Amino acid sequence: MVISLICNTSCELIFSPVDPYHYTLQLSFQDASGKDLVKGIGYDNSYPDSLSEDEHCGSVNRDLYIANFAYPSDPETLNGLGIDVCTPKSSDDPFNGYYFLIIGIIDKRIDRSNAEIIFHLTCPYIFGDDNEHDIDSYWTIKKQWAEIPDIRCYKIIFDGNKIITDIKSGGYSGPYLATIITERK
Question: What pLDDT score does 78 carry?
């Protein structure tokens, strides 16, 4: 029975011939004066894959945020989301000394040519309030060599009004890097 339950819920994810689509954002949050709003956020040491603050990346303590995502084209889809934090020591320091969050999902739907994904994030540590903040991301999807998807984020709207188009690619199909300037004082 346990094997049946596992296969019915996860075998498609493991053995499906369809490559999943990865939508990954690396986001630096700063206030208007340039203060790093991610630096110092607590790590979650209760998960085995979590790293310590002395290392480069790790899971954010889940008590410090509420995060989920939705597809506006499919309002019934609302899923929980884990978030990682990385230090400037990670990779080649894409944010010039700023800490950043990694937010992303994997989607196996193959009927998309474009996608809009809204990441809902409540994090008093970063935003200074208990409000839900929306990171609305827009993606193009093109099939490339042998049906491998080329997924590109071309626009991010933060809280419905700040349009960010200066989005850098971390390589073929992402991750996509952006700095969000909040109104936190």
Answer: 52
Nearest of 138, 140, 166 to residue 151 by alpha carbon: 140
6 occurs within a structural domain? no
List the structure tokens of 170: 């971390």
Of 177, 168, 43, 21, which Cα lies nearest the Cα of 103? 177
Would you say 88 and 97 are in contact if contact means Cβ atoms under 8 Å apart?
A: yes
- Name the 3-class secondary structure at 169: strand
Gyration radius of the chain's alpha carbons = 17
**2 is a domain residue:** no
Q: Is residue 14 part of a domain?
A: no
Q: What is the DSSP-derived secondary structure letter of residue 5?
A: H
Q: Residue 1: inside a domain, yes or no?
A: no
**How many domains in the chain?**
1
Token pair of 29, please? 């949050």
pTM listed for this prediction: 0.76
Distance, in Å, from the CA atom of 122 to the CA atom of 55, rounded to the nearest integer, reads 25
Per-residue pLDDT reduced to its tens digit, 33-87: 999 999 888 877 654 444 444 456 778 888 888 888 887 776 555 565 678 887 7
